[in-house]
Amino acid sequence: MTGTVVVTGVGADTAIGTVTIGADEAVFTGHYPGFPVLPGVCLIEVVRSVLLTWLGEVGPLAGLDRSRFHRPVRPDEEITAAVSLVRGDNGLACTATVAVAGEKAADLRLRFRSGGAA
């Protein structure tokens, strides 16, 4: 999946990043014919990409503690991910709200292990 993540806002433990996934991306092929939708796992990757752009390094994904999908994300829509994180001895945890055009698309809670980039 391509698309350049731009981190537009950073606080002590928060960041906001945006990315647009083009209609030519392979992830849209067959998902779904006549009504292309970005798969939910790609929204998780968007959050991870925001973290990587912001922090420079993130350990491997250790868990998806919560996921709620509220609306489909279509090709060429600008995706905004607002991420808050908590650092711990075993890595970091984050909550993220993913939105498109001001509409909530997903709420996610993820955990990443310490120990290098994934």
Automatic annotation (TrEMBL):
Xref: Gene3D superfamilies: Hotdog Thioesterase
InterPro entries named in the record: ApeI-like, HotDog_dom_sf
Annotated ranges, domain ApeI dehydratase-like: 13-92
Single Gene Ontology MF annotation: lyase activity
EC code(s) of this entry: 4.2.1.-
Alphabetic keyword roster: Lyase
Record Pfam families: ApeI-like
EC top class named in words: lyase
Name this polypeptide is given: 3-hydroxyacyl-ACP dehydratase FabZ family protein
Native organism: Amycolatopsis samaneae
